[in-house]
């Protein structure tokens, strides 16, 4: 159970401390694209919840299941009702994060997905990053993230800062802001998930797999599509390793 926000600040802190002493039992995985989500759904044999508590008519899909001692919830924001494409970007990410925390009270959020990487910062196609810091590149407010040094060490992942905006491409303004954020990876949801998670005091971690090199020669959309299938397979493997590591542990052990 995640902490509720009633009562004095002291009682909230006491509840957080209490939660941190118990093994993680409920996780919420947020994945924006169907292609990214389905390998994880299949791996853990998650099933769609036809009675999710989401408002009637929204395209958001709730998959759930049990793995070891963990209840896994995976939310895919579904297809945009007007355009029929995946509901990527910060607006859907914020909404589903908010609604899912309210409905599911997770102990931990994992935002997993693909990202563009900067080769100048050491990113290569297929790398998977456990993100150390999150920021928006079109909104200059930094957001704290939950530190997971043991997870990082155990999985031997790369780490770097993530910058989030609502576009796959990169305008000159975005480029300056991403450089100011010192980002190694760039996505379209992470900072939105981080913002809502921070607001509701649920720890969140970010697992981002590189499909395209932003400061490389190839056109982003082309390179993204070329690498999507292989990289999402890698992403599923790393998400599985993360969940295996989490199993049986309390938050401070991550
Ligand atoms: N997801 C995958 N590649 C991306 C990029 N270059 N920018 C934003 N999100 C991405």
From TrEMBL:
<dbReference type="InterPro" id="IPR044580">
    <property type="entry name" value="MTAN"/>
</dbReference>
<protein>
    <recommendedName>
        <fullName>Nucleoside phosphorylase domain-containing protein</fullName>
    </recommendedName>
</protein>
<dbReference type="InterPro" id="IPR000845">
    <property type="entry name" value="Nucleoside_phosphorylase_d"/>
</dbReference>
<dbReference type="Pfam" id="PF01048">
    <property type="entry name" value="PNP_UDP_1"/>
</dbReference>
<dbReference type="InterPro" id="IPR035994">
    <property type="entry name" value="Nucleoside_phosphorylase_sf"/>
</dbReference>
<feature type="domain" description="Nucleoside phosphorylase">
    <location>
        <begin position="26"/>
        <end position="243"/>
    </location>
</feature>
<dbReference type="GO" id="GO:0008930">
    <property type="term" value="F:methylthioadenosine nucleosidase activity"/>
</dbReference>
<dbReference type="GO" id="GO:0009116">
    <property type="term" value="P:nucleoside metabolic process"/>
</dbReference>
<dbReference type="GO" id="GO:0019509">
    <property type="term" value="P:L-methionine salvage from methylthioadenosine"/>
</dbReference>
């Amino acid at each position: 159970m995640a902490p509720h926000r009633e009562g004095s600040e002291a009682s909230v802190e006491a509840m957080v401390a209490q939660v941190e002493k118990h093994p993680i039992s409920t996780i919420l995985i947020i994945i924006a694209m169907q292609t990214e989500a389905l390998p994880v759904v299949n791996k853990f044999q998650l099933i769609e919840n036809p009675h999710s508590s989401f408002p009637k008519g929204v395209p958001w899909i709730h998959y759930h299941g049990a793995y070891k001692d963990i209840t896994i919830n995976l939310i895919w924001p579904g297809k945009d009702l007007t355009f029929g494409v995946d509901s990527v970007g910060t607006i859907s990410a914020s909404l589903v994060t908010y609604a899912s925390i309210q409905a599911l009270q997770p102990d931990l959020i994992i935002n997993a997905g693909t990202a563009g990487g900067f080769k100048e910062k050491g990113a290569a196609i297929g790398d998977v990053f456990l993100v150390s810091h999150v920021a928006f590149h079109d909104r200059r407010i930094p957001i704290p993230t939950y530190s997971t040094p043991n997870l990082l060490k155990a999985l031997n992942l790369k780490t770097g800062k993530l910058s989030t905006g609502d576009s796959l491409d990169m305008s000159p303004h975005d480029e300056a802001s991403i450089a100011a954020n010192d980002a190694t990876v760039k996505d379209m949801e992470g900072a939105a998930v981080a913002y809502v998670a921070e607001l509701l005091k649920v720890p969140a971690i970010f697992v981002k797999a590189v499909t395209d090199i932003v400061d490389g020669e190839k056109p982003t959309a082309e390179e993204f599509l070329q690498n999507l299938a292989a990289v999402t397979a890698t992403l599923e493997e790393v998400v599985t390793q993360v969940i295996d590591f989490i199993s049986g542990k309390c938050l401070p052990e991550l």
